[in-house]
Amino acid sequence: MVAAAFAATMMVGAAQAATQQQDASDFFFDESSFLEFDQFDVSDGFLTQVDVTVSALGEDNDRVEGFGDFGAVATASSGIVATVFSTEILNVTVTNTDGCAGNGCVARANATFTESGSATFTDASALLPFLGSGTFQLSIDAIGEFVTVDAEVIYTFVPSNTTPVPLPAGLGLLLPALGGLALVARRRKAA
Questions:
Q1: What would the pLDDT profile of 58-106 be if each residue is shown by its tens digit?
Q2: The sheet that has 32-38: what strands, in order across it?
Q3: Contacts of 84 (CB under 8 A, 6+ apart)
Q4: What burial letters (b/e) apply to 15-54, b meaning 16+ CB within 10 Å?
Q5: Segment 114-148, tens digit of pLDDT
């Protein structure tokens, strides 16, 4: 009984980490744009970590036909630069060139990539921009005819609805248990 009473007084609500995940994806065509995400609402709890992951697939093609004696040169470039709050998440560029000589020849170049990158934010000053009731942007600078971007933001936090066991209520169990121990000790001493 004493052990149970003591355990009840020492049990404080263990804060369990929770996560919220947001996903966004879009196609980009040789442009600067963004993906938008909701900020973390502080009424949900205490934010401890933000993970941002970006996966991208890009392609660019160029076809040039030779002219006169000069031939042709085709160049294709594909890439992406993805940043959030000045932190680079992904930066890749692929360029391919093809050439041919003679009139009517055809030069074909193709540049493709499949890459991913991620960043984890845990420092209090780094987490601050993610807090609020608005949105934030993942900036995308896409190079090439076609770039597909999938992004994920995961908030790790301690929920605000965790309720610790109140110590005053546990104290009510501890006092009778200690009194019982004192009584047992007194009887042993008297015997």
A1: 999 999 998 877 889 999 999 999 999 999 999 999 999 999 988 889 9
A2: 32-38, 135-143, 72-84, 87-100
A3: 52, 119, 136, 137, 138, 139
A4: eeeeeeeeeeeeebeeeebbbebebbeeeebebebbbbbb
A5: 999 999 999 999 999 999 999 999 999 999 989 99
